[in-house]
């Protein structure tokens, strides 16, 4: 039993770690926001480059593809090189890429640089690893959750901030502001982040070569990849088309007004901690299933209230609560699979996740232009129903297996040793 003085000393020692966790969360949110800040400005970009609106999906899609490539090629390096140093290097390259994007002479040049921006934004994933390793053993889950909240806030608020800056100063000026922020974060992360001296003995080629074996080895990883891909396809498709749809009749909103829906969606972040606690008590699958139900309900409300700003806002809040809750529960169980391969498992999951997001970002504007807003919403519901069905079937199969083997109900959460239960 600890004395009051020991408890006090422990609390004092943890105070800097909490401050570091908050800084890391802020940096992660700012990093990943670069994948989304241009979305409210897509109509403006289409007008400037005299291209069809559907073609601008290449810009958003290229950033998701770049992020996907970064997840595949850069994130596993965190097992061999200190993630803190990778964060600094990627922020530095991100600064240059954002500056070049602000000078892009054509849509295709912007899309090409966008791919680099997306790849460098994966430093948000490295930051989650830094937070996990820097936190006390009994606060690691909380630290990762804090970073996850920062990333989610960055994704949502990026549309509001990007829309407001683009409306007032133009999308090129908005990219210059983003470049300045990236430069400041490069300096701060270099000075503040702890350097982890742990190194994997595997070569880079061996790290990448082990990824398919991990997918084959863990059925839970395959399930997590599929359901995560389902809701992020829907998330990316709906958000990129929503800001375009509300720019036309009957609402005719400008970029700043459309970005306000991202601010409303940020309310969903308040559900993430509750979702994590519920996943600890009840297991991940019930939380994921509930998340899909909220996604379906949110999309239905958005469709039915497509001419009402308050109605769309309510639908967006439910939609984002569903997505964020499912994401927290899914990440928790996947990070528990194998502590020795945590970075690579996370890389595999996020690769599937953002591949689906890239497809959603590209397909969404095409469906919107050819078939209308209702077709986008109907496809979103179909994909969410598929993800819900897989989750429910997997949960039923797992319950039957535990019952047959006489194993009591256990959650899919993480123990202190990092191994799944």
Low-pLDDT segments, ≥5 res: 1-16, 407-411, 413-421
Query: What is the level 1 CATH name of the largest domain?
Result: Mainly Alpha
H/E series, N to C? HHHHHHHHHHHHHHHHH
Tell me, what's the shape?
globular
The class by helix and strand makeup works out as mainly alpha
Characterize the biggest β-sheet.
none
When the domains are counted, the total is 2
How many strands in all? 0
Radius of gyration: 21 Å
Supply the CATH architecture of the largest domain. Answer: Up-down Bundle
Q: What portion of the residues fall into strands of 2 or more residues? A: under 5%
Would you identify the CATH H-level superfamily of the largest domain?
Answer: MFS general substrate transporter like domains
CATH topology of the largest domain: Growth Hormone, Chain: A
- The percent range for helix content is over 70%
Mean pLDDT rating: 83
The first-to-last residue Cα distance is 27 Å
What does this structure look like?
The protein is an all-alpha fold. The chain folds into 2 domains: 16-193, Growth Hormone, Chain: A; 218-421, MFS general substrate transporter like domains (Growth Hormone, Chain: A). 77% of the residues lie in helices and 0% in strands. The chain is globular, with a radius of gyration of 21 Å. The relative contact order is 0.13.
């Amino acid at each position: 039993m600890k004395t009051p003085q020991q408890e006090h000393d422990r609390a004092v020692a943890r105070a800097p770690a909490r401050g570091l966790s908050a800084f890391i969360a802020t940096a992660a949110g700012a990093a990943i926001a670069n994948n989304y800040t241009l979305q409210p400005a897509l109509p403006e970009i289409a007008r400037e480059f005299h291209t069809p609106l559907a073609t601008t999906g290449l810009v958003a899609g290229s950033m998701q593809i770049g992020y996907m490539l970064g997840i595949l090629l850069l994130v596993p390096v965190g097992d061999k090189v200190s993630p803190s140093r990778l964060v600094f290097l990627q922020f530095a390259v991100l600064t240059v890429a954002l500056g070049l994007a602000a000078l892009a002479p054509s849509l295709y040049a912007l899309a090409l640089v966008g791919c680099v921006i997306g790849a460098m934004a994966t430093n948000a994933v490295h930051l989650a690893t830094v937070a996990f390793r820097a936190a006390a053993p009994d606060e690691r889950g909380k630290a990762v959750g804090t970073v996850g909240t920062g990333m989610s806030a960055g994704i949502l608020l990026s549309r509001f901030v990007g829309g407001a800056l683009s409306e007032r100063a133009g999308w090129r000026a908005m990219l210059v502001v983003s470049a300045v922020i990236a430069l400041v974060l490069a300096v701060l992360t270099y000075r503040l982040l702890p350097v982890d001296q742990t190194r994997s003995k595997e070569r880079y080629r061996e790290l990448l070569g082990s990824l398919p074996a991990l997918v084959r080895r863990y059925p839970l990883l395959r399930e997590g990849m599929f359901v995560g891909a389902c809701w992020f396809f829907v998330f990316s498709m709906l958000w990129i088309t929503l800001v375009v749809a509300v720019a036309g009749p009957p609402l005719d909103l400008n970029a700043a007004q459309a970005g306000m829906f991202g601010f409303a969606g940020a309310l969903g972040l308040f559900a993430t901690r509750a979702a994590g606690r519920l996943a600890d008590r009840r297991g991940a699958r019930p939380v994921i299933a509930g998340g899909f139900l909220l996604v379906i309900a949110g999309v239905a409300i958005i469709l039915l209230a497509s001419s009402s700003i308050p109605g769309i806002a309510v639908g967006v809040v439910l939609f984002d609560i569903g997505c964020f809750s499912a994401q927290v529960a899914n990440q928790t169980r996947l990070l528990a699979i194998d502590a020795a391969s945590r970075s690579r498992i996370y890389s595999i999951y996020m690769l599937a996740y953002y591949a689906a997001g890239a497809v959603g970002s590209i397909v969404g504007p095409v469906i919107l232009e050819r078939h209308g807003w209702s077709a986008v919403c109907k496809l979103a519901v179909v994909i969410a129903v598929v993800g819900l069905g897989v989750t429910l079937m997997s949960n039923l199969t797992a319950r039957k297996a535990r019952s047959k083997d006489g194993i009591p109900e256990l959650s899919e959460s993480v123990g202190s040793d990092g191994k799944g239960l």
